[in-house]
């Protein structure tokens, strides 16, 4: 019998990630795939946990797997069937994110952590995109929006709780190591792209129509080229495998100050009363999330000039403007 530790987490996740990413997967199948991912995150991935150090190191198998998981969640596509079925899928997606936030005992240590500790800034921002993107969609039900807000607040608590243990030397060392490695990428939370991430009915129908026409008109050509394409794909996969072995695992930088800076930037931007792209309900959600960040961060926020300036300047200005334009 094969030992679980002989199998990489990504191998276990891959079949379900492919279903979640594919825009041709129906809502019920996507829902089942998300349910399977939830079970894997809760029951299997903790077996691969290892303590995270605040420095740049080669990625461990679980860190690589979680990077693919967050990417798949942020790219979740499925054709719309009914509002109830669509919201069920989105609820299961939020449930997977909640499972990532569950506190877990760390191996070889008496402390507790979570899967979020095994993620880089880019992966955490992808999870924030999913939650904030649902809040930005006014057509979703109130229950789903409440669940999305609770999910984002959970990520915020974890990020700002880490802020209390970070020092300026830690952040400077991480940034210096990243610049030295040449893997400098600014984490971003793009609400415009995440609004349409869950349901793409028109695009999916168009893809299906095109595939139907192609299958009718070019059946013989598709049959003739199947073997050739399979051979090319096999050759390409073998080349990628060899390249990966030669290069080794990518470097991993644990999430820290860049994620918090980007999160505050987005929340403060949502409070801007002059921006008509965001509704009052979205601003209320942003205020609740920002309040959570301030409660968890506390006086620690004042120790970081980057955070202090953003809150003091644009943050306070938008808060005053919102209070003035709000009805009595």
Outline the secondary-structure elements.
Blueprint: H1 9-21, H2 27-43, E1 57-58, H3 61-74, H4 83-100, E2 104-105, E3 112-113, H5 121-135, H6 142-163, H7 168-181, H8 191-195, H9 201-217, H10 219-247, E4 251-252, H11 257-270, H12 280-297, H13 305-325
Antiparallel strand pairs: 1-4, 2-3
Helix pairs in contact: 1-2, 1-3, 2-4, 3-5, 4-6, 5-6, 5-11, 6-11, 6-12, 11-12, 11-13
Explain what you see.
With 328 residues, this protein is mostly helical. The protein has one domain. Helix content is 66%, strand content 2%. It contains 13 helices and 4 strands. It has helices spanning 9-21, 27-43, 61-74, 83-100, 121-135, 142-163, 168-181, 191-195, 201-217, 219-247, 257-270, 280-297, 305-325, and strands at residues 57-58, 104-105, 112-113, 251-252. It has a two-stranded antiparallel ribbon with strand order 1-4. Strands 2-3 form a two-stranded antiparallel sheet. The longest helix has 29 residues, at 219-247. Residues 193-246 have low confidence and may be disordered.
